[in-house]
Amino acid sequence: MNSNKKVLASLWLIAFLTPAYAASKHVVVIQNDIQGQDLGVHCKSADDDLGFVPLHQGQQWGFYFHTRFIGTTHFYCNLFTMDSSHALTVYDNNVHRYVGDTCHWSIQSNRSCLFKSDIQLSGCHD
Q1: What is the per-residue pLDDT across 33-61, written as a single tens digit (0 to 9) for each?
Q2: Among 14, 33, 74, 90, which residue's Cβ finds the most Cβ atoms within 10 Å?
Q3: For residues 83 and 57, what is the distance between their CA atoms, to the nearest angstrom?
Q4: Is residue 113 within 8 Å of residue 121, measured between CB atoms?
Q5: What's the DSSP call for residue 35?
Q6: pTM
Q7: Strand ranges for 1-126 from DSSP E
Q8: pLDDT, tens digit, for every residue of 62-103?
């Protein structure tokens, strides 16, 4: 087999063995549902720092990305109000299994809830 055919065969094999979700676009949306308070959001992954975003009550902000081929993509956000702060994993492989390509988070005064197609999933985090 000549070298061009070997390269094409190798590329075909890599494409065939790569999971379909590895190249798909994923979206994370964060919505401030805290009554009467602003929310500060600072999201990061190992590769990307998305900066600080202020959200007034009712506002939302989001970002999109493509996962790594080996399935290790992990985004977390630090969430700040006037009197508290906490970190939240907004996307990893476990979240993807439950919601697919779009993660919609509702940040409330005492918890963060994940939605799939406007249906609240059972896992709200305190």
Answers
A1: 999 999 999 999 988 999 999 999 999 99
A2: 90
A3: 15
A4: yes
A5: T
A6: 0.75
A7: 25-32, 39-44, 49-55, 60-66, 75-80, 85-91, 102-107, 112-116, 119-120
A8: 999 887 666 678 899 999 999 999 999 998 877 777 777 888
